[in-house]
Specification:
Radius of gyration of chain B: 31 Å
Largest sheet of chain A: 6 strands, mixed
Structural class of chain A: alpha/beta
Order of helices and strands of chain A: EEEHEEHEHHHEHEHEE
Low-confidence stretches of chain A: none
Helix content of chain A: 25-40%
Distance between the termini of chain B: 31 Å
Strand order of the largest sheet of chain A: 6-7-8-3-9-10
Number of strands of chain A: 10
Order of helices and strands of chain B: HHEHEHEHEHHHH
Strand content of chain A: 25-35%
Mean pLDDT of chain A: 90
Strand content of chain B: 5-15%
Number of domains of chain B: 2
Oligomer: heterodimer
Number of domains of chain A: 1
């Protein structure tokens, strides 16, 4: 599903990632751990083509994303869902419109959009807030909406960058449970976090980065 | 179809939400287009005035005194074959005196005591529309002056040439001012759209992340620019129309007396439509320029 071969990325000649090799199979749940500046966000950015590697090759669904044309990037992203620490919701649109966006850009019909958005909102438990603006929601609810937006397309891969960073431990636990439920339906999930408690809760494969290097890859459970 | 509806809705939503920037963009576009419009109005009206004056251009061929009737008749036949002459009227010596008395009744005493009628007979020639330029008139006059029996040729060549020169300068000024103001308008709209883009860069990034193509993100901004430009064009027309009516009103009675005000006219419909389209195009270009720059800055 995801393969990285000798991947390096530099910012101002300083390595953000250094010779990283990693294989993630379809349907896996992988936690990407490490302190701030370890290279977790850089790795995720490489996967969704926000950055390109300076060295090495990255295959996502057997496509070499390092060589992907710029015009093809949106189409790759449509097969992925992304969740961020700061939720990245559009404040001027309500919850329904925010979750519907990935479907709108693909030209889905109004009927299909309504059905899929309702399903996604139900799955994350915020269906009752569909007409609210994101700014009127709690942090936990905002993150649920952002997860609904990430899964509304039925993505093959879900990438999350510190999704519990702005949440208290209880809410963080609920969000992780949501990711586990999404993974149980067959979606490959990759969550970057520096929170050890999350790792304890997930009990799955943990890949640890430090100063841009992959320092451990421990498969727990599955 | 749904995507198109979404993009159009987004463009109008941007316009509605960002009211202050919308007002600034429309007002500045309207002002710049109105400045250009003033020159255009001036140019079109001057051209209209020239055209109507050219309708009145006549060439008068004064004849030798005592020219026999047969020779006058021959000359008339000869003139009728001349290309460019639309109509021809013979004014006899007696008719010339009668015309003088009718036109200048208070000066009629000047003719008394002169004994013999001093006014010559003449042919008054009206030219066809294609032969009213100063060059055509001069060519015709050159051909006529050597015809036996023609004593003198009179036509208002100088003022026709002067007017043509003035029109040429106004035309040049209109083009120069139009080009400068168009560039200013594009720059202003580009700056406004760029400000909008920077204010909404997070939103644009989110759209990129969820798989929106560049065109999907750009189209609402291009539409927004085009709509702002078109609104600016409409407002400029309203400003110009208001100014034009005010000017006509101010000109009032003296203008009517001189026959000037009735000759002035506002833009015909197709020019008005063109002004709105130019506004639309300027707005669209302004948006395009800012999107290009924004794209480069992001890269």
């Amino acid at each position: 599903m995801i393969q990285l071969f000798h991947v390096s990325k530099y910012y101002d000649r300083r390595p953000a990632l250094s010779d990283v090799n990693l294989q993630i199979a379809k349907g896996e749940f992988v936690l990407l751990m490490g302190p701030s500046g370890a290279g977790k966000t850089t790795l995720l950015k490489l996967l969704f083509c926000a950055e390109s590697p300076d060295q090495g090759q990255i295959l996502v669904q057997n496509r070499n994303v390092a060589r992907l044309r710029r015009s093809d990037v949106p189409y790759l992203r449509r097969s992925m869902g992304m969740v961020f620490q700061d939720f990245r919701l559009l404040p001027k649109k309500n919850v329904f419109e925010n979750v519907a966006l990935p479907l709108v850009v693909q030209g889905a019909s109004a009927f299909e959009t309504k059905r899929k958005v309702t399903e996604a909102l139900k799955a994350v438990g915020v269906e009752h807030r569909k007409d609210s603006r994101p700014t009127t929601l709690s942090a936990g609810e905002q993150q649920r909406v952002s997860i609904a937006r990430a899964i509304v397309n039925g993505p093959i891969i879900l990438l999350a960058d510190e999704p519990t960073g702005n949440l208290d431990p209880e809410l963080a636990g609920e969000i992780i449970e949501l990711f586990k439920a999404i993974n149980a339906r067959g979606t490959t999930v990759m969550v970057a976090t520096h929170n050890r408690q999350v790792a304890d809760q997930v009990s799955r494969r943990v890949v640890t980065l430090n100063q841009g290097k992959l320092v451990s890859d421990e498969g727990v459970g599955q | 179809m749904r995507v198109v509806a979404y993009l159009v809705r987004e463009a109008f939503s941007n316009i509605r939400v960002n009211r202050t920037t919308t007002l600034i963009a429309v007002a500045t576009t309207a002002f710049t287009l109105a400045c250009f419009g003033v020159f255009l109005l001036l140019y079109l009206n001057l051209r209209g005035v020239i055209s109507s004056l050219q309708d009145d251009i006549q060439v008068v061929l004064y004849l030798d005194d005592g020219l026999p009737a047969q020779q006058v008749s021959d000359l008339q036949q000869r003139l009728k074959t001349e290309p460019g002459i639309a109509s021809l009227a013979y004014v006899s010596k007696d008719q010339a005196v009668a015309d003088f008395r009718a036109q200048f009744p208070s000066e009629a005493h000047l003719l008394q005591g002169l004994g013999e009628n001093p006014l010559p007979a003449s042919f008054v020639v009206t030219l066809g529309p294609r032969f009213r330029s100063s060059e055509s008139i001069k060519r015709l006059a050159d051909r006529m002056k050597d015809i036996p029996g023609v004593a003198q040729i009179q036509y208002s060549r100088e003022w026709v040439e002067n007017l043509a020169t003035v029109i040429g300068y106004v035309e040049l000024a209109a083009i120069a001012v139009g080009a400068i103001l168009s560039a200013a308008s594009v720059t202003i709209i580009a700056s406004i759209i760029r400000l909008t883009l920077y204010a909404r860069r997070d939103e644009i990034e989110i759209m990129h992340l969820i798989g929106a193509t560049g065109a999907f993100i750009r189209i609402p901004y291009l539409l927004e620019g085009a709509v702002l430009g078109a609104l600016g064009g409409l407002l400029s027309l309203a400003l110009l129309k208001g100014g034009f009516e005010f000017f006509k009103l101010q000109l009032g009675a003296p203008g009517r007396l001189l026959g000037i005000s009735s000759g002035f006219s506002f833009f015909p419909d197709h020019i008005s439509l063109l002004m709105v389209l130019v506004g639309l195009l300027l707005g669209f270009t302004g948006s395009g320029v800012s999107l290009l720059r924004f794209g480069r800055a992001k890269a």
